[in-house]
Amino acid sequence: KAFPSGKKDLKSTVKFADVAGLEQAKAEVVEFVDFLKSPGKYEKLGARVPKGGLFVGPPGTGKTLLAKAVAGEADCPFYSMSGSDFVEMYVGVGASRVRDLFKQARDSAPSIIFIDEIDAIGRKRGKGGFTGGNDERESTLNQMLVEMDGFNSSTGVVVLAGTNRVDILDNALLRPGRFDRQIAIDRPDMAEREKIYMVHLKPLTLETGLKQEDVAKRMAALTPGFAGADIANVCNEAAIFAARRAATSVSMEDFERATERVIGGLPKNNSLMS
Ligand code: ATP
């Protein structure tokens, strides 16, 4: 096929334990996991299960990770695509990719579809003639709405999506029976950063005498405003610094240098004090 529709990561091995912090969000997605594990239970009861969940939060805060964890906990296939893949696409291709992706997901239900950066296709539609060139995006969005409206509890597909701009989303997406459940994914506070460090320090070999707990605490205090992705980055960079100086273990100095490197790479408008 010329245009593969979405990416299929057949087995997600991510579990809730791999997602540090985000306790409130995890509590809110447990219901999706239960539904995916036993859709029949809900169908029998005549319960209407939410079809879609929208993860709202800044980049790198774990939206994709949490969606994968839902799939991992439910032990079901994970299909993903990014809204930005649809920008500047040939007419009709976006809609047909959406159709294909939903078909694959339905055929292997129970399953999960995750749409990252949904704002790229789901932005508010133009009200007049001055928003030229949006036809393709609109037909992609329309196809997605058609697919979601065709679901019911027996379909066994849950659609999750991520955005950092819920304010620009088309209201049609937020209507009942679509992405009617919003789940806030915030930047981690100090205690949460510490937990995220603990996850990403695990694979590292630390210098003798350096305890994971102490490094996590110290680094959490040193990196206000960091999202989970930045933290993963710092830990990896620190290990690379250690490798570069031909050391067999990672030192506190490696972490400090890695922090500077990661801060240097952050966008200028990133408020480190938030
Ligand atoms: P974007 O909006 O840019 O797509 P995102 O919110 O989907 O970002 P993820 O892709 O889930 O962010 O996060 C990137 C990586 O950062 C993850 O693969 C993981 O390594 C790390 N990470 C982010 N949040 C957490 C967390 N809460 N716990 C552990 N690791 C995290």
Automatic annotation (TrEMBL):
Q: Where in the cell is it found?
A: Mitochondrion membrane
Where does the AAA+ ATPase domain lie? Answer: 49-189
The record's similarity note reads: In the N-terminal section; belongs to the AAA ATPase family. In the C-terminal section; belongs to the peptidase M41 family.
**Which protein are we looking at?**
AAA+ ATPase domain-containing protein
State the organism named in the record: Cladocopium goreaui
Full protein stretch here: 305 to 578 of 812
